[in-house]
């Protein structure tokens, strides 16, 4: 069941959430994905809007996501080193308030 006054189906969001988060703080450290894609304001706004849903925000630990990503893929990262950055503030305004549920 979706949440009232939301444009998304909550179960669909939960299923897609790992893909959304994985592409932000973890994969940016890999050479082939070394650009933090903030130049897509709609996508970054969407990610921030989803993160700011209380039921989602309370379950997201970005450090643990990054730690798992780098520690469990030893063929990609044989040293298991977990990089520090980037620091992403998901609490910034998402700029999507003008979008309304129809």
From TrEMBL:
It comes from the Eukaryota. Transmembrane segments: none annotated. GO terms for molecular function: glutathione transferase activity. InterPro entries: Glutathione-S-Trfase_C_sf (IPR036282), GST_Omega/GSH (IPR016639). One of its GO terms (cellular component) is cytoplasm. This is Uncharacterized protein.
């Amino acid at each position: 069941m979706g949440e009232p006054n939301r444009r998304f189906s909550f179960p669909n969001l939960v299923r897609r959430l790992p893909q959304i988060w994985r592409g932000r703080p973890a994969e940016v450290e890999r050479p082939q994905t070394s650009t933090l894609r903030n130049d897509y304001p709609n996508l970054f706004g969407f990610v921030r809007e989803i993160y700011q849903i209380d039921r989602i925000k309370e379950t997201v630990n970005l450090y643990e996501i990054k730690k798992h990503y780098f520690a469990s893929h030893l063929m990609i990262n044989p040293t298991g080193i977990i990089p520090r950055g980037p620091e992403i503030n998901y609490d910034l305004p998402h700029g999507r308030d003008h979008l309304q549920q129809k």
